[in-house]
């Protein structure tokens, strides 16, 4: 009876050890190839998160425009106070204010020239908003492929061990290759998914700022087009 109880305890302990297999242990047992691949993926994840948060706060700041900004611009322009309007634009740190400021600096020229100047300034602002965002898209596509590369490496290692085993397959001999294959695939997919979600979120927020810029620019051009 005591022997049965001891054996039962050993089985439970073994099961507990198997269930508490940590991610760290999985990574460390994935072999040199797996460690290199996972290190690369971790670096890509760090870059992706840095770009995301840097762009998120930059775009959030760009989206902030005082609700009374355009009303003040209308009052200044209508009353011929162009210097005051230009000073207001310069004191407001936002893409919309810079576009309006560019238009104000061209007042007196044909409306088409003002519109062209605003469009050119808008392209520069959009370029600044989208800075490094393409890197997120690249990581989203490259990370799963790098993980798959680790899978292929792991399978090659496993097949090599089988070939050298002389027909006697030992699961312990295959463990390095199998750990490499599984952990790199999972890591690659996780990094790819995170980069893909963050990329799309940044794109959506950028589009909102661009629409805001277009709306305010159109409102400013309509103001200049109004009959005096």
Overview of this protein structure:
It is a multi-pass membrane protein. Residues 93-214 form the MotA/TolQ/ExbB proton channel domain. There is one protein chain. It is built from nine helices and no strands. 29% of the residues are buried. It is rod-shaped and about 95 Å long. Helix 3 (31-63) runs antiparallel to helix 8 (133-163). It has a domain at 67-129. It has helices at residues 2-19, 23-28, 31-63, 69-78, 82-91, 95-105, 111-129, 133-163, 171-225. The chain is mainly α and 228 residues long.
Task: Sum this structure up briefly.
It is found in: Cell membrane; Membrane. Residues 93-214 form the MotA/TolQ/ExbB proton channel domain. This protein has nine helices and no strands.
Main sheet properties = none
Radius of gyration, taken over Cα atoms and rounded to an integer in Å: 30 Å
Number of extended strands? 0
**What is the H/E string?**
HHHHHHHHH
Mean pLDDT: 79
Uncertain segments are: 1-9, 11-21
Number of helices: 9
| Broad shape | rod-shaped
- Cα(first) to Cα(last) distance is 105 Å
Q: Quickly give the structural class.
A: mainly alpha
Content of β-strand: under 5%
- Tell me the helix content: over 70%
Topology, element by element:
Elements: H1 2-19, H2 23-28, H3 31-63, H4 69-78, H5 82-91, H6 95-105, H7 111-129, H8 133-163, H9 171-225
């Amino acid at each position: 009876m005591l022997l049965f109880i001891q054996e039962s305890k050993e089985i439970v302990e073994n099961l507990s050890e198997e269930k508490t297999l940590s991610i760290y242990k999985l990574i460390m047992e994935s072999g040199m190839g797996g460690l290199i691949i996972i290190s690369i993926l971790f670096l890509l994840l760090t870059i992706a998160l840095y770009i995301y948060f840097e762009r998120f706060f930059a775009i959030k700041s760009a989206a902030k425009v005082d609700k009374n900004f355009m009303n003040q611009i209308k009052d200044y322009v209508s009353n011929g106070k162009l210097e005051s309007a230009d000073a207001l634009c310069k004191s407001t740190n936002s893409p919309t204010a810079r576009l309006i400021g560019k238009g104000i600096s061209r007042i007196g020229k044909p409306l088409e020239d003002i519109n062209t100047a605003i469009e050119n300034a808008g392209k520069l602002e959009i370029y600044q908003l989208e800075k490094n965002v393409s890197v997120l898209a690249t990581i989203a596509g490259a990370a799963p492929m790098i993980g798959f590369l680790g899978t292929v490496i792991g399978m090659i290692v496993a097949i090599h061990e089988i070939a050298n085993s002389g027909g006697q397959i030992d699961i312990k001999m295959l463990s390095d290759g199998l750990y490499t294959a599984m952990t790199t695939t999972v890591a690659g997919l996780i990094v790819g998914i995170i980069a893909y979600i963050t990329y799309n979120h940044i794109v959506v927020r950028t589009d909102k700022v661009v629409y805001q810029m277009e709306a305010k620019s159109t409102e400013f051009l309509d103001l200049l087009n109004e009959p005096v």
